[in-house]
Design a protein that fits this description.
It is built from 11 helices and 2 strands. By secondary structure, the protein is mostly helical. The chain has a two-stranded antiparallel sheet with strand order 1-2. The longest helix is centred in the last third of the chain and has 33 residues. The relative contact order is 0.11. Keywords: DNA-binding, Transcription, Transcription regulation.
Amino acid sequence: MQVAAHLTRRIVQGEIDEGRAPSELEISSEFGVSRVVARETLKILASLDIVDVAQGRRVVVRPRAEWDYLSPLLIEWLPTEIVDELLQELHQMRALLEPELAAMAAASITDETLARLGDEIGRMAALETDPEAYLEVDHEFHMEICRAADNRILDRIMYSARWLGTASRRLTNEAPAGLRRATVQHTEIYEALVARDPEGARAAMRRHLSNNYSTLLAEKEHRSKRAARRR
């Protein structure tokens, strides 16, 4: 894992020739590891769609647009500026999907699901001073709505993006009074669902995501300024 992380960072930084990845022999020689470890390193990179490994052919780096950006491993290994770009792209995806999921849920949501969402709203209000615990409830609130929409494909798309969603929420939760605002916005979504109002749920979710995006951009700017001051 350490060797795979190191090689990924080198590829991103342009330190490896375009299109060519190191072979098992080269990895073994450079890092002082066995051929077995070198082979497993390439398997990890291949599982993330970073390289193509074919029997009897050289290992090649795949185009960056094709990497598995939903993998938590890759998110950990990428530089901050690329993760920031991915978080913005995640918000674009959420803005396309989640308002419609909320509208779909409002049309068919059960009393049992509404009861669970109500409990989660209560837990959010009690956890506004505990960002990490709040994050888990926040994620479950959105997934509960997704499940209520009763579309397995959309559910898996949302679930697959959970690692990026966690990274995004950690940033937006850092904003002053961010969790208090988030609870208010989640409550507005919940109330539209209770009223079984698809258009109201769609609009409330859209407002929530728009506010999140603005907060994300503001936090990114604050981090850049802090980094500049440290330099």
